[in-house]
DNA sequence: AAGATTTGGCTGAACGTTCGTTCAATAGAC
DNA sequence: GTCTATTGAACGAACGTTCAGCCAAATCTT
């Protein structure tokens, strides 16, 4: 039954439906990144997705739900990224490094998606639905960072508060995302990584004080695929 | 000519005009904090400011300019706050501490105003006018933090990159603001302060490793005047 | 000093536009 | 032939903006 189908060309109806649905979400991300949350319009979304004006209300019950599903898509992509990153390494130290690398990887950390994240965050207080979508994932991420910092702290016997250290690291990465959003010309991935690494090296010197800095100027971090 | 006038009751026409202008900006902040940027409406603003519907277009040429002036007001208030904080202490160490205390003071760091900040940041990419308003002030703040970190680093002869340390501190405070915005129930001023202080103590141990932590649990930090 | 006149902040209704949503008609996959 | 994803026109609501009129403060006149 299951023939060999490429992901590029959906043939069955349910596949096609799911494809256009994803297409609409992708178009929503592009429109928000380009025009902002307030000027995001279903007409613009349908135009960018190359579909008719009324199709959005067929796939999504309302504009609001399209936005919720867009945020859900972003949240899941981010969660999958850091879960995959943290799965490979063995030690807590290397897991933390992988987490940072994932946080600044071009797939999740590019101007377009950061703009959409901040657009949603800007509306978060007035629309609790958005919080319901991403809060569990954010809490899971915070737990993971705190657990890893706790392990490293225990290993090294550092006289610091691991919860505070984890909070500081999370907030620092969020702030670095903000720098990419507001002053992209002054943002560089390797600088962002080194900023976090200097912090980690200061609180966990035995684990992070080393030649790690040299690796991160490598060209691998500089490839900026804004797709 | 100049009679003794209280600031509470403007009598002359120009005073009254300036007062209602400020009233409209204050109402704008409240509406954005309550309903979000996308649902902010001139009707809501005029209703909250207790003025008629068409008055906004008398004081401001358009809705867009009302928003720009609101952001300008917010930016100047924040700039004045950290300038005043940094003026009193003598040493770079104490100036940094005062900067942090100002950053988390209830006057600038409360749910309402943080929500408005993030609302504007969410629209920053698509409306460069907003960036023009706050970019100079942000740059001045960044310069100040970097200068102070540089002084402390030189004093202590710490083997770290002062620019990276300053960037890390700025991003950490921005991220802590985001925490207040997204998960206000898990935010506490003293915890935010301690998060930053643990960072400073780690990179500048001779300057910030001390009994500073105890002070910050004082009730003075806990007074949350969300006005 | 007091009335007369001008000035300017302020009102609220009206207008034109834009947006989200609905729905009958259509075309292509099953 | 049936079902369903898709179209595009149409509708109603909501929004930003405009404007003629109003009233009190400021200025001028006597």
Detail the topology: elements first, then pairings.
Two copies of one chain form a homodimer.
Chain A: H1 13-35, H2 42-48, H3 56-59, H4 63-87, H5 92-103, H6 111-123, H7 128-156, H8 162-182, H9 189-203, H10 205-208, H11 212-215
Helix pairs in contact in A: 1-2, 1-4, 1-6, 4-5, 4-7, 5-7, 6-8, 7-8, 8-9
Chain A binds a DNA duplex (30 and 30 nucleotides) through residues 11-13, 16-17, 20, 41-43, 51-59, 62-63.
Briefly characterize the structure.
The first copy, chain A, is an all-alpha fold. Helices cover 69% and strands 0% of the residues of chain A.
Give a written overview of the molecule.
2 copies of one chain form a homodimer. By secondary structure, chain A is mainly α. In chain A, 69% of the residues lie in helices and 0% in strands. In chain A, helix 1 packs across helix 6 (111-123) and helix 5 (92-103) runs antiparallel to helix 7 (128-156). The two termini of chain A are 34 Å apart. The model of chain A is unreliable at 1-7 and 217-227 (pLDDT under 50). Chains A and B meet through helix 1, helix 6, helix 7, helix 8 and helix 9 of A and helix 1, helix 6, helix 7, helix 8 and helix 9 of B. The first copy, chain A, binds a DNA duplex (30 and 30 nucleotides) through residues 11-13, 16-17, 20, 41-43, 51-59, 62-63.
Ranges of chain A with pLDDT <50 over ≥5 residues? 1-7, 217-227
Which pair of chains has the greatest number of interface residues, and how are they split between the two chains?
A-B, 49 and 49 residues
Query: What is the alpha-carbon Rg of chain A in Å?
Result: 20 Å
CATH architecture of the largest domain in chain A: Orthogonal Bundle
* CATH homologous superfamily title of the largest domain in chain A: Tetracycline Repressor, domain 2
Q: Between the first and last Cα atoms of chain A, what is the distance in angstroms?
A: 34 Å
* Tally of individual helices of chain A: 11
Oligomer: homodimer
CATH class value of the largest domain in chain A: Mainly Alpha
- Which structural class matches the secondary elements of chain A? mainly alpha
* Count of domains of chain A: 2
């Amino acid at each position: 039954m299951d023939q060999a189908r490429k992901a590029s060309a959906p043939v069955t109806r349910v596949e096609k439906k799911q494809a256009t649905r994803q297409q609409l979400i992708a178009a929503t991300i592009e429109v928000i990144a380009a025009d902002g949350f307030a000027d995001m319009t279903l007409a613009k979304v349908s135009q960018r997705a190359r579909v008719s004006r009324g199709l959005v209300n067929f796939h999504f019950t309302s504009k609001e739900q399209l936005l919720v599903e867009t945020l859900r898509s972003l949240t899941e992509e981010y969660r999958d990224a850091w879960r995959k990153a943290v799965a490979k390494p063995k030690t807590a130290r290397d897991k933390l490094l992988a987490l940072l690398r994932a946080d600044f990887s071009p797939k999740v950390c590019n101007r377009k998606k950061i703009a959409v994240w901040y657009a949603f965050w800007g509306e978060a207080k007035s629309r609790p639905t958005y919080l319901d979508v991403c809060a569990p994932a954010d809490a899971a991420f915070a737990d993971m960072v705190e657990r890893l910092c706790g392990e490293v702290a225990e290993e090294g016997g550092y006289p610091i508060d691991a919860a505070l250290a984890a909070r500081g690291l999370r907030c620092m990465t969020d702030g670095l995302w903000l720098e990419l959003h507001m002053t992209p010309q002054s943002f560089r991935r390797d600088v962002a990584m080194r900023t976090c690494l200097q912090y980690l090296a200061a609180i966990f010197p035995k684990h992070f004080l080393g030649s790690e800095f040299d690796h991160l100027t490598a060209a691998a971090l500089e490839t900026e695929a804004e797709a």
